[in-house]
Specification:
With 258 residues, the chain is of the alpha+beta class. The chain has two domains: 54 residues; 178 residues, Immunoglobulin-like. The protein contains seven helices and eleven strands. Strands 1, 2, 3, 6, 7, 8, 9, 10 and 11 form a nine-stranded antiparallel sheet that branches. It has a two-stranded antiparallel sheet with strand order 4-5. A hairpin with a 6-residue loop joins strand 1 and strand 2. Helix 1 packs antiparallel against helix 7. It is globular.
Length: 258
């Protein structure tokens, strides 16, 4: 009987040690959010976003297609953000209060709120980078994958269900005549089309436990660490369960033989 307990103890200890490895427990604390991005202002675009939150670190993976492709002979820059602090909704056509046929960024504000975090490809992610075209994803389709730090206001809005992802930038040729010559409500040196919303979706809690695979990174950071931690946690759980079961089997066998 003593021999069987000695054999079981190392196995149980190994399982407990694996489960207690630094970083593995934190993977279980990760919360996932997702949003389906729907077209605004007749953009005809579509997309999806997943956000994995661990503390104040958010890994954002996004796929979009059907956006305006070119702007002044170059790939069209699409500034994008997590908007916060309002209703947590995407605006309806009724938001077009000036009747020009376009919901501008400020007209949509009462629905989705102000910029909380800029989903830039590199560098600054604060509201200050909200209209910096040089760090915006570009082209008619793109994949976005970046890990960034969320401030307290964005975290609060996300957890309250009022965080909304908005992608900006419309094809000027598709705008109604009344809006084609208007300046941007955010950056007057740009046309209205450049900063008006093209896609919108509210981030909601998701049952998915891992990021979508196959996305090309357009910014700093990676989801590999989070995915690896999830696999390690699963493996640790299986090892621990196997160790306990093995120990019990050894004790039963020894008792039977005695």
């Amino acid at each position: 009987m003593k021999k069987s307990l000695l054999l079981a103890a190392p196995s149980i200890a190994m399982g407990i040690a694996v489960m207690a490895l630094p970083g593995i427990a934190s993977a279980a604390d990760t919360t996932s959010y997702q949003a389906q991005l729907d077209a605004l202002n007749g953009s005809g675009a579509s997309g999806s976003v997943m956000l994995q939150l661990n503390g104040d670190q958010a890994t954002v993976t996004e796929e979009v297609s059907g956006l305006a492709g070119m702007f002044n002979g170059s790939p069209y820059p699409h500034v994008q953000h997590i908007h916060i602090g309002a209703k947590g909704e995407c605006p309806t056509p009724a938001a077009d209060t000036d009747g020009d046929g376009v919901i501008s960024t400020t007209e949509g504000g009462p629905s989705y709120g102000a910029i909380g975090t800029t989903l830039s490809t590199s560098g600054d992610t604060s509201p200050a980078a909200g209209t910096t075209l040089e760090v915006a994803p570009s082209g008619d389709s793109y994949s976005y994958d970046r890990t960034l730090t969320l401030d307290a206001a964005t975290l609060e809005s996300l957890q309250a269900g009022t965080a909304v992802v908005v992608v900006h930038g419309l094809d000027p040729a598709t705008l109604p005549a009344a809006a084609q010559s208007k300046p941007s409500d955010l950056v007057p040196s740009l046309p209205l089309a450049a900063t008006s919303p093209a896609l919108c979706g509210t981030l909601t809690a998701s049952q998915m436990s891992s990021m979508p695979s196959g996305s090309a990174a357009t910014g700093g950071g990676s989801t590999a660490g989070v995915e690896d931690q999830g696999l390690l946690a699963l493996g640790g759980g299986l090892l621990a369960a196997g160790a306990v079961a093995g120990g019990l089997a050894l004790r039963r066998r020894s008792a039977t033989q005695a």
